[in-house]
Amino acid sequence: MSNHRYHHGGGSYMHPRMSYQHHFTYVSSCVKYLIFLLNFLFWLFGGLLLAIGVYAFMDKLKDGVGWVRLETIYDVIFNISLVMIIAGIVIFVVSFAGCLGALRENTCLLKFYSMCLLIFFLMEMAIAIICFVFPQNMNSFLEFQFTDKIIHSYRDDSDLQNFIDFAQQEFKCCGLSNAGYQDWSKNEYFNCSSPSVEKCGVPYSCCINATDISSGLVNIMCGYGVQEHSVAAASKRIWTSGCIEIVRVWAERNLYVIAGVALGIAFLQLFVIYLAKTLEGQIDMQKSRWS
């Protein structure tokens, strides 16, 4: 029977195999620090998103238009700065749990982190399946649920107004539903019974040529009075189709690209969940070895 420890000159010597077993760990440094690095990047992104949302919200408060009405879910959805704050907090908290859980080898935080990722993944898959399998139903749902509320709120929130203007210019559309530019008759500033100078008009972002070539200035009056014209006459000055239908057609034309990006994101999420569960298992094995 061999002795792993023996005395020599008043000192002691430990066999290399015993030293190796003493320092051996089941926890992979590669997995641990990969999870930490990925979540650190998302933690920074969540903090940046939160900071921008808070800044935008405080800026509206300073201008006296930052009041928050939370009577319905739409009041939250249409307040872009509030959406950014909520999204920033969620990303910040979840990624922080991943960072700290990996760095401190805390299985409770890692379980919370992987569970959150799994919930996000299932929600994304459910939305993707509904959009791809029932596109017409989704189209009708969006038109019914959002058209009136978005049109009514156009001038109530500067962030929402800028977003709508950007979408109409980018996708070359006007309004949301199949009624197209006539949707703007539901807005109190643009309907034909309004005392405003904008009556029977549409936002400048609907115009085909909103920017004057010679001066480079935006003509905000380019859409005035077009609701009184037929579609054929109005189409010479503005885009007449609703944005929901235009976006649906764009999505169908770019279906493979969108599907590829969605699958890439899904596989990345599954990979990170796998890493988190792997690290959990390694930590549990190391704990059982110590016990």
From TrEMBL:
A Pfam family annotated for this UniProt entry: Tetraspanin
GO molecular function, one term: enzyme binding
Disulfide bond sites: C174-C192
Membrane protein topology class: Multi-pass membrane protein
Main location: other
CC per GO annotation: adherens junction; cytoplasm; plasma membrane; pore complex
Protein localization: Cell junction, Adherens junction; Cell membrane; Cytoplasm; Membrane
Residues annotated as transmembrane: 33-57, 77-100, 112-135, 255-276
GO BP terms in the entry: protein localization to plasma membrane; protein maturation; protein-containing complex assembly
Stored Gene3D superfamilies: Tetraspanin
Keywords in alphabetical order: Cell junction, Cell membrane, Cytoplasm, Disulfide bond, Glycoprotein, Membrane, Transmembrane, Transmembrane helix
The organism's place on the tree of life at top rank: Eukaryota
InterPro entries in UniProt: Tetraspanin/Peripherin, Tetraspanin_animals, Tetraspanin_CS, Tetraspanin_EC2_sf
Signal peptide: none
Entry's family note: Belongs to the tetraspanin (TM4SF) family.
PANTHER family per record: TETRASPANIN, TETRASPANIN-RELATED
Protein name as annotated: Tetraspanin
Protein's organism: Drosophila hydei
Name of the encoding gene: LOC111602966
